[in-house]
Specification:
single chain, mainly beta, 558 residues, 39 strands, 6-stranded antiparallel beta sheet
């Protein structure tokens, strides 16, 4: 049911026992010294065994990458694992993570960091970058994906995943969710340009298609067969896909063939992962699907997949997140995911030796003059609107507002990662004219967001304002006049409520109002993204010289 312990750990424990037996048999000095040696060897063996076991701690918590991180794909280079996710309308694109143990992931950057790699035009929450795949072959990393707002499928490559990636290499075969498979000097591409999964051979450095595309599997009959990946094990080519749509009916299915071109026979026990059945109908995890498989150095197999966590009834706001599950894959047999094809928040299974990361600091203070990789912009941003001054992040107000589906507003945001959280910032609006504003937004996408902000009034005063935008409905919930100067803005999230607060002295916060979470959920608003907690600045006119200085941003989740 579970992956085996690390073979190195097993050898260490066995070695401890053999070393103890050998020494106690050969060391005969006296009854007293013999007893002493036995005790010492026993304590030493126990200590070493416990040390070995401590590196193979049991269990972990899902999701392993929380918040809006959908469509995970994974590869391994030696002892290092790399993972990528979809990014849709956000820039930079395709967040890139690194791990040593599949559980503790550090974001090391993005694959697409230049407008020439990622033209987003007027991409919305259904546009931009769809499901990427990352693969490693002969010293080179490849990331292949689809920009549905531009020219379709393309790949980029690099020999250093922490550095810059190449310019796009565009591909002929269409569809979405492209993936690569390397074998014997050949590179194969799979995607879904029609109703089904298609295969062709390509040159990954030039993008040239070397033969005609061939349909190799239609799936098991579920809608939207997509997310294909090919693996080879025990002489079989395995084709893993997702079906049912990335909603409550999502599922992972698999087929295999002795020939990469097919025909592929489906697993009689499909789906191998789903939460649509009775055994998971009450799970806090739903929508499991879009998976990728990886074999660890110790021989164990694992699956990363997406899923979401409903809240406030059947609504989810954090987007689709990245989850992890062990896989039993016996020789010549079909893979079995976590014993019964479901996953849990608390996974009580053996793991690889864990390499915990240092806890993330709650505060981003902007004093180092740069933003971490967790911060992103809406579409292709304008760098001149983002500067650092006197230890603050300075956002220049522009006339492109948060409701605009074109262009890029002055906005920088990070993902909401917890259902229960608190986010706080301290800011000051400067050189503002009437109608200029800046603040904190709980942002699903253009037509759906809650904004807590400071606004300049016509009489020279300023006010703190709570406003909601729900598709065609815009409403100012409350407005309070404040003295000029710094204002602290805070949002607290829970299962059903966002609570919005403000202060002027950094400590005595007052609640301005509450909003229901479900009104900006995916089920209500739509889209493929998740909640971003953003800092923004908007001007009321083209000639405004307003800007906002943000001193820090605190995020604490439970």
């Amino acid at each position: 049911m579970y992956p085996p312990f690390s073979s190195a750990v097993s050898r260490s424990i066995t070695g401890c026992c053999e070393w103890y037996r050998g020494d106690t048999e050969e060391t005969i000095v006296s009854e007293e010294s013999n007893a002493f040696m036995r005790k010492m060897m026993l304590l030493l063996g126990l200590a070493l065994s416990l040390s070995c076991f401590s590196q193979n701690r049991q269990g972990y918590q899902n999701p392993v990458i929380p918040g809006f991180h959908p469509d995970p794909s994974i590869c391994r280079a030696g002892d290092d694992f790399y993972l990528v996710n979809s990014s849709f309308q956000y820039f930079p694109g395709v967040p890139l993570f690194h791990s040593k143990d599949l559980i503790n992931w550090e974001q090391i950057g993005h694959c697409l960091t230049r407008p020439s790699q990622l033209p987003l035009h007027d991409a919305g929450p259904w546009g931009g970058i769809y499901a990427p795949t990352i693969r490693y072959n002969s010293g080179t990393f490849y990331m292949i994906t689809t920009n549905v707002s531009d020219k379709g499928n393309f790949l980029v490559h690099t020999t250093d995943p922490r550095g810059e990636w190449s310019e796009p290499v565009w591909l002929k075969q269409g569809g979405i969710d492209p993936s690569l498979y390397f074998e014997d000097g050949k590179c194969y591409l799979v995607s879904n340009p029609g109703v089904g999964i298609y295969l062709c051979e390509i040159n990954p450095k030039t993008g040239e298609q070397l033969n005609e595309s061939k349909r190799i599997w239609n799936g098991t009959g579920g809608r939207h067969p997509e997310g294909p990946h090919i693996y080879k094990k025990d002489g079989w080519y395995y084709l893993l896909i997702s079906e049912g749509g990335t909603e409550y009916g999502h599922k992972v299915t698999i087929a295999r063939s002795r020939d990469i071109d097919g025909p592929y026979e489906e697993n009689p026990a499909n789906p191998i992962l789903t939460h649509i059945n009775k055994n998971a109908q009450n799970s806090p995890i739903q929508g499991t699907g879009h998976a990728d498989l990886i074999q660890a150095p110790d021989g164990s197999w694992w699956m990363v997949c997406l899923a979401f966590r409903p809240q406030s009834g059947n609504h989810h706001l954090l987007g689709r997140e990245t989850f992890l599950a062990p896989v039993r894959w016996d020789k010549n047999a079909w893979p079995v995911v976590n014993g019964d094809g479901t996953i849990a928040l608390q996974m009580d299974v053996p793991t690889l030796p864990q390499h915990p990361l240092a806890p993330k600091p709650a505060r981003t203070d902007f004093k180092n003059g740069k933003l971490g990789p967790e911060w992103v912009h809406i579409r292709n941003y304008h760098p001149e609107n983002y500067t650092f001054a006197s230890g603050n992040l300075r956002l220049k107000a522009t006339s492109v507002n948060l409701n605009n589906g074109k262009g890029s507003p002055t906005f920088v945001g990070r993902r909401q990662e917890h259902i229960d959280f608190t986010a706080t910032t301290s800011m000051q609006l400067k050189k503002a004219a009437s109608g200029d504003e800046a603040g904190l937004t709980v942002y699903m996408f253009e037509p759906s967001h809650y904004d807590l902000f400071v606004k300049q009034l016509a009489d020279g005063k300023q006010a703190v304002v709570l406003r909601y935008q729900l598709n065609e409905l815009t409403h100012t919930e409350k407005e309070v006049i404040l003295p000029q100067g710094k204002v602290q803005l805070r949002v607290k999230g829970s299962n059903e409520i966002y609570s919005f607060e403000y202060a002027t002295n950094g400590k005595d916060f007052k609640e301005l109002g509450r909003m229901n979470t479900r009104y900006i959920s995916t089920e209500t608003a739509g889209g493929f993204t998740g909640i971003m907690l953003g800092l923004y600045a908007v001007s009321g006119s083209q000639t405004s010289k307003a800007y906002a200085d943000f001193e820090y941003f605190d995020y604490e989740g439970k």
